[in-house]
Structure prediction request, 757 residues.
Amino acid sequence: MRGQIPPRRHILTLLVENQVGVLARIAGLIAARGYNIDSVSVGETMDASVSRVTLVVHGDDWVMEQVVKQLNRLIEVIKVVDLTEEEFIEREMILVRVNADPANRAEILRIADIFRAKVVDLTQRTYALEATGDDDKIQALLDLLRPFGIKELVRTGLIAISRAGKTPSTKPERVTDGDGEDGVKKSPAVAM
Amino acid sequence: MKITGAEILMKSLVEEGVATIFGRPGGMILTRTDPSSNHPMKHVLCRHEQVATHAAEGYYKTTGKTGTVMVSAGSGVTNCVTALTDALVDSMAIVVLTGQLPGVMGWDAAQEADAMGTARGCTKHSFTGFTTEEIPRIIKEAYFIARSGRPGPVLVDLPQAVMTDCVAYKGHPKSVAIRGYSPQVAGHPGQIKRAADLIAHARRPVIYGGGGIIHADASEELRELVEITQIPTTLTLMGLGALPTSHPLWLGMLGMHGLYWANRCLIDADLIVAIGSRFDDRVTGKACEFGTHCKIIHVDIDPTSIQKHVKVDVPIVGDVRWVLRELNKELHKVERDWAKDFEEWYGQIEAWKKQHPLRYEQRQGVIKPQYAIDMILRLSEEYDPIIATGVGQPQIWAAQFYRGRKPRRWVTSGGLGTMGYGFPAALGAQAAFPDSLVLNIDGDGSVQVTLSDLSTLVDYKLPVKTFVINNKCLGMVGQLPTGPMHQPDFVKLAEAYGVVGIRIERPEEVKAGIEKAISTPGPVVVDVVVEREENCLPTIPAGAAITDIDRAPPPIPDKSSQAWH
Prediction:
């Protein structure tokens, strides 16, 4: 079964407890299995006790099934969704400082205009541009700017939202401890 | 009234039903192990934190109650790592409470270690107590997480300031609310029906059970399943005891050093019913060549175990006991003369048993290790003993010749294969059952990893009988260049600790020596000097496919004496 489907990019969106060490657990879990994280972005949700983590990883379907299951197994991970399984909108923001000799300035501004990028800083020799877009758009912009000489590039990492509004939201569930005294297991142990 | 964090911790442990704590005190945990504090728990002070943690595993495996460990900061924590990893792979419910610096961390202070960072890779979950108020909640959650779902080790790091602060105790929480954790107990009814349907139409089925049956207390349900369906059953190293070894449909252990016919059943079966087992590489061999010609049903509480190595036709995520009860209900409805339908299958298995029996030959002169272990198991059988083992050849032979009939009487390190496991696991089991006969069948290599805790046996009057199957080398490592190994005189060593030492050197001494060890009160160490050149057979070479079993070296030619099974 393994390796029949070539690896592809997956965007995982996770809801996690907003606590110390959670990101370390997620990164450690993925690193321990030898997978590289392409990008990660983290931020609070509307509920301050919950953070959303957006992970971009490469893997075939077999690997991804394990990654998702393993992430779900972490106690502080509340929900995991592989957005790549459905329709979604992705965005990344970049800040890029590019060489801007007087001769090139008009051309760079024209490119920025076409890509709806903004000039956020300028010096005598450089422009700093701010741009947002999906992976393809960002890549295309960078390809066009590269001939001028990119001095510095900062990326936020990808964030994404499901088109159908299926991006998971928190709904705390209360789990009643049905176990007996002394920790003796009386399975089924948990009433849910 | 305000009380200290340490007192709150003790109250919480009592609320959780903790009766025994294994541990080792130190500067950062003294406030918690003060013997003058008034609580009903027994504290077993071990000589090494690894021993304390393995002892908690032995305690859990034999009682089904979560084992508790309390150790100090720094090396106290790092010494637990081996045992925590062992508990993680073998699904042992233990809670390890560790001392920590007063508060701020990352100062490279005396005896500082990053307990949370260390625990991340070797526990099911870990907590740090940041405030005294949250101790009851953390303890409640720690024990709940350790024992529910797929059991595992949980570490709770307790900074000293949190232990010494005084706050009002508001009682122990009655329930836990962890939104990211809700183990699935009930199996999917549709999947259970599909499984029952596959079983009802199988011609050459085999049940392959694992340690999950023991952890879920599902031995009765397994026996019922076997009796309804009359399906031959094999168990993994971790599952031994889930079906009585006297059962007519019991095949013996499977896997790399499992019995020939048990492995052949998996190769030739048209249906494998995997229950609470995880298709470990020691069972499947080369996973991509495993089970490609048959249907597989897999019942497990841990979703990550399913489809990890092997493609499964009917996965059922759920508590093994819950699922087996429902499955048995479905199978009761099936009208089929099971035993008659399987006659050909049984005949085939009998032929394999005759072709490759498990046997050894005890000649005059030198003791065969298999003979010694077989005799230990036979002569102790009437006492319904708890058998713990170290890791290596004696472990495999003890598993092959195992005679137990009940669950929770067999304690061994499976997933991690931790040398030195047997002695502390036996210690923990004996602490739980002071009046039972507890044996540790160990090798001279494995036993020396943790033997320093002989003192603990003396301190607490724990009458563990340790049999050192002494071939004066690391037998399982075999032909690899281990170099000469100096061996202590195990009898003198035992005596130095104030423990009875017995030496058995000749085959005719075996029976009397074992009987003497069993009947001697208090702890005993028996040095059984055995033949050096002896291999564990049968064997499937590491990395080979299970079907390569026929290419394994043939069993020892046997002309005369002992031939079992």
Observations:
- Chain B has 23 helices and 20 strands.
- Residues 49-63 of chain B form the longest helix (15 residues).
- Residues 189-355 of chain B form a domain with the Rossmann fold fold (CATH 3.40.50.1220).
- The mean pLDDT of chain B is 91.
